[in-house]
Amino acid sequence: MAEIDRSSIDAVLAEAVTNGAHVGGVAIAANADGILYEGAFGALTAGGEATDATTLFRIASMTKALTSTAVLQLVERGALDLDATVASIVPAFGELQVLEGFDGETPVLRPPASQATVRQLLNHTSGLGYSFLNEKLARYHELTGTPEALAFEPSLLTVPLVHDPGTTWEYGTSTDWAGQVVEAVSGQRLDAYLAEHLFGPLGMASTTFAPDDAAVARLMPMHSRVEDGSLQPNGLELPREPQLISGGGGSYSTAGDYARFMRALLRGGELDGVRILEPASVDLLFTPSLGDVALPEVIRSTNPVLANDIPSLPLPQDWGLGLHLLLADVPGLRRAGTGDWAGLTNCYYWIDRASGVCGAVLTQAFPFFDQPIVGTALGFEAALYAQVGAPAAA
């Protein structure tokens, strides 16, 4: 592959800052052999210190792929069965009921028709949800005072299901429970397990669930899109020493660190002579697993401060055991079979095994699925594929 000409990609990112789509961020792209492009753009805050390759981000649900990898490692070792019930490993899961609705201000709960499996945690068919994306759960949190997901408190693991397992795709706290499975099976806290079996082996030295003072000094502040369209610091801080190690959203990382993880998946589970997964396990991340369960046409937000509505692409899609899957080529962009996802803080990534490239654009802003930021991510991807090769229009 020819060397990347940075100028067209740099221009996309510079324009994003000029037009107010971004305050700043870091974009990265790589293939199996190394980094194709890495560029910091803008500043940590408007008029402040410039971003750079060491800038740290709250990567939120980009954590899910890391936790899913840990689960598959334990399956490989024969310590875990994907079709085991979660309750057989973490008994507290068996206490969860299904939230049917409300009798006045009293939640109406019933036993689930079946017990969720570990596999259903990884593809989000366990019946669990998020309060910022589910009206029933939003009301449940309001009435019960149970802290929201971003509090990273153990009470999150008491929140009821909203569907019977296996019946519906619902994005939620499934991967937090997958983290509990990793803890129960490995005997280690999730952060310690990942440090030993993923972050350490891959050389992801900046990735953590509890940033120290030196790391916080490199952390981009959170911003919110305000009424005049600008991005302003919102003062949000996640707990530095969380009570719950959130496998679904609690980690911090740099673009360079996360690219090492993505490259390992591109390479079938190995990087620089270190293997984190066998090729067959990597395939499970990228293999459709939903069967007759359909993805929603729109994921509706119940909290516009945190997230916008998220419309589905008009293309065939599915979910593997840890990644969203696009099952058709996108002209000028990624190819069929690409695995991707994002973080609530407007971080986006993709891993395109057919083209042999991966990439991410990281920033720190609410609400999620901010159209100007999404536009930047797509512009970055298009500028990259214009050089590395992309599917032609149908």
From TrEMBL:
<dbReference type="InterPro" id="IPR001466">
    <property type="entry name" value="Beta-lactam-related"/>
</dbReference>
<dbReference type="InterPro" id="IPR050789">
    <property type="entry name" value="Diverse_Enzym_Activities"/>
</dbReference>
<dbReference type="InterPro" id="IPR012338">
    <property type="entry name" value="Beta-lactam/transpept-like"/>
</dbReference>
<protein>
    <submittedName>
        <fullName>Beta-lactamase class C</fullName>
    </submittedName>
</protein>
<feature type="domain" description="Beta-lactamase-related">
    <location>
        <begin position="10"/>
        <end position="368"/>
    </location>
</feature>
<dbReference type="Pfam" id="PF00144">
    <property type="entry name" value="Beta-lactamase"/>
</dbReference>
